[in-house]
Amino acid sequence: MTIWSYLTNAQTMEWLVTTLWLAAVPIVVGLAVALPIGWVASRYRWSYPPIVSIFGILYTIPSLVLFLVLPGILGTGILSPVNVAVALTVYTIALLARTVADGLSSVSQDTLAAAAAMGYTSRQRLLKVQLPLALPVIGAGLRVAAVSNVSLISVGSVIGVSQLGGLFVTGYVNSSVTPTIAGLIWFVVIALVFDAIVLLVVRSLTPWQRAVSAR
Amino acid sequence: MTLSLQAADDSLLPPLGRVGVWFNDPDNWTGPQGLLARIVEHLEYTAIVLVIAVLIALPLGLLIGHTGRGVVLAVGLANAFRAIPTLGLVILLVGWLRPLIEFKGAVPGLLQKGAFPFFVPVMIVLVLLALPPILTSTYAGVKNVDPAVRDAAKGMGMTGWQVVRKVEIPNALPLIASGIRSATLQVIATLTVAAYLPFLGGLGRFIKDGTGRLLDPRYGYPAMVAAGLTVALLAVAIDGLMNLVQRAVVSPGVSGRFSKKDRTAVTSSPTSVAQVVQE
């Protein structure tokens, strides 16, 4: 088979859908969970060191281990893609909790004082001032998480979870580099696409950044 | 090889409690296939990767940080490598390099007969994986040295090389060390992928071989989880050990262990390196 057919055949398309889903869900869920955790760490200073070190340790657990232990905890099948999704969500939270905390803390006290003087409640200050100003930092962390998540998905093939990493297995079993190259192309393309999506979303949410740099 | 797995009903997995039983059986610890031998192999492979990666990345990082040239290239490459799946790269290199490697003998204490043509591609991929954290943290560490300190060193008549050796390296050491630590964690964790290939050892062997005997309560799943947990514990233990080395090597004047104020600035965790890499 040619590289084109490995890139586009029915099996690959099926794997592609699973892989896209595995890349997207952990990022969205991970961000949603990391935001409140990061906020707590930035709001209550005593909680910052324990939160950062707990999530630092979580990040050191090898992905393969999480893929294996989670079915025992969640009651899912060992080959279920849910394990991979949950594991990647854990990594995303681990990476982002600290980034969100640092991003929120980096907003200057003068800015917050100005917002308070304009009559913003503390909730409004958080949502309308602090969070938007922290977005570039959070976005940078999100890009790292998105890209490294995509490359971690393929590790699931070692235990047999069905996704685009299956192309690597095919390449190995058939002693042919063609499917392997097709797999690498797909993973890099997906990583680039997710990176670009995060970049575009952050840019569209922070129009003032371009206004400042254009001056 | 995944077909046999899909046929099995994996809802019948042995319970996680079997992992304790597995750990408790001395037969699983000793012998050439035992846990202890696999741990030694895992550490041997890790050490080889790190020595090569440090020998390449450290001088390169110092050069980039000192001259300020090649920054865009270094950071771009580091980001690009993050996107490439390790397993795919290993299998690709095995496909390309294996036929070219003539040496198929054993390396006493390290590799069994026939392992070498598989060993080389795995080592190349893991070195590529370990390079970016060391390179970027070295470069960032050197770049972050206070320009006034550097100017003072030049004013004292130090040559460029002396500035690197006596000022930039000692000052950048906490960041360099955290880069090497994060590379080490990554290599220890990712090495499990090596077991995808035949002849190679390391803790991943239990995981790969376990997939074929998933429902065997005496080996399969318990052995896989046990090996996985050992990898995690190994990573934490080695990181702790490197933390001690770092404390011994970094000058107290730099680490701020004499003044309480700066202490938080130097303590490093894996995520702090992620922060550095983002630059």
Automatic annotation (TrEMBL), chain A:
Compartment(s) of residence: Cell membrane; Membrane
Pfam families: BPD_transp_1 (PF00528)
Domain ABC transmembrane type-1: 16-198
GO cellular component, one term: plasma membrane
Key words of the record: Membrane, Transmembrane, Transmembrane helix, Transport
Membrane-spanning ranges: 20-39, 51-72, 78-97, 133-161, 181-202
Subcellular location, principal: membrane
Matches recorded under SUPFAM superfamilies: MetI-like
CDD domains associated with the record: TM_PBP2 (cd06261)
Record membrane topology: Multi-pass membrane protein
InterPro entries per record: ABC_transp_perm/SBD, MetI-like, MetI-like_sf
A single GO BP: glycine betaine transport
Record-stated family: Belongs to the binding-protein-dependent transport system permease family.
Protein name in the entry: ABC transporter permease subunit
Organism this protein belongs to: Nakamurella sp. A5-74
Organismal lineage: Bacteria, Bacillati, Actinomycetota, Actinomycetes, Nakamurellales
TrEMBL record, chain B:
Chain ranges of the ABC transmembrane type-1 domain: 39-242
Localization (cell): Cell membrane; Membrane
Keyword list, A-Z: Membrane, Transmembrane, Transmembrane helix, Transport
Highest rank taxon of the organism: Bacteria
Residues that span the membrane, as ranges: 45-64, 71-96, 116-135, 187-207, 219-238
One term under GO cellular component: plasma membrane
A Gene Ontology BP annotation from the UniProt entry: transmembrane transport
Chief location of this protein within or outside the cell: membrane
Membrane protein topology class: Multi-pass membrane protein
One Pfam family hit: BPD_transp_1
Similarity field: Belongs to the binding-protein-dependent transport system permease family.
Listed name of the protein: ABC transporter permease
Organism: Nakamurella sp. A5-74
